[in-house]
Design brief:
It is a multi-pass membrane protein. One of its GO terms (molecular function) is transmembrane transporter activity. It is found in: Cell inner membrane; Cell membrane. The chain has 241 residues and is mainly α. It has one domain: MetI-like (MetI-like fold). The protein contains 9 helices and no strands. It has helices at 2-9, 15-48, 52-67, 70-91, 102-127, 131-139, 144-174, 186-197, 200-231. α2 packs across α9 (200-231) and α5 (102-127) packs across α7 (144-174). The relative contact order is 0.15. The model is unreliable at 234-241 (pLDDT under 50).
């Protein structure tokens, strides 16, 4: 009973803070995935464009941000961004240090990393589209915009869901690294709780369980989305054009 009260649900427990930290972890991961989706789509388009310069830019992006340690990127975004904000503040007459918000820095850093992986997911999904579907879209008179909206996007998303699920899990785990910026996400809160109570094993186990709960729920959501996408018939929309 004392352990349960310590973890959680008594007046002096840490349970509410850990649950709030899990929510923060979900929010920062979702924000990072959204940022990465935009960057990934742009980079994938560049790599599929066939233009040498754009392909080179896309290759450099994916190589750098998949090869450099995630923690280093977080440091660069957080401290580099804070320095840039401070410089802008000084130019506007403000004296003193201006730090980049931890949530924003974490979401940007994880989003940039996620974008490198999502670019490859989107590129592979596009290449998986049957050429016959694109030829059929042209044959019935679809213009480029309509073909992109009715055929390419639904098919790319359908093929990309499994890969995006993996990227989400990767980003969810990478979010633990944001604790170095002071953001009170799940890892940081587990560390503070463990240090305050000297119950290191207990709180790190609880933190690990919460991460497993998040990843398990995420798996169910992505698996459900994949089944639903496979049941739908995106090519049927061509007949409605």
């Amino acid at each position: 009973m004392a352990t349960l009260e310590l973890i959680g649900f008594g007046s002096t427990g840490w349970g509410a803070l850990l649950l709030l930290a899990a929510l923060v972890t979900l929010c920062v991961t979702a924000s990072a995935l959204a940022i990465g989706a935009v960057l990934g789509a742009i980079i994938a388009a560049a790599k599929l464009s066939g233009k040498t310069s754009l392909v080179a830019i896309g290759n450099v992006y994916t190589t750098v941000f998949r090869g450099v340690p995630e923690l280093l990127i977080i440091y660069l975004i957080y401290f580099g961004g804070s320095s840039a904000v401070t410089s802008i503040g000084k130019a506007m007459g403000y004296e003193g240090f201006l730090g980049l918000p931890s949530f924003l820095a974490g979401a940007l850093a994880i989003g940039i990393i996620s974008g490198a992986y999502q670019a490859e997911v989107f590129r592979g999904a596009y290449l998986a589209i049957s050429k016959g579907e694109l030829e059929a879209a042209n044959a019935i008179g679809m213009n480029r915009g309509l073909r992109f909206r009715r055929v390419i996007i639904p098919q790319v998303l359908r093929f990309a869901i499994p890969g995006l699920g993996n990227v989400w899990q990767l980003s969810l785990k990478d979010s633990a690294l944001i604790s170095v910026t002071g953001l009170a996400e799940l890892m940081r809160t587990s560390q503070v709780a463990a240090g305050s109570t000297r119950q290191y094993f207990l709180f790190f186990i609880v933190g690990g369980i919460l991460y497993l709960v998040l990843t398990s729920l995420s798996d169910r959501i992505f698996n459900g989305a994949e089944r639903r996408a496979n049941r739908s018939m995106p090519t049927a929309a061509m007949g409605k054009a």
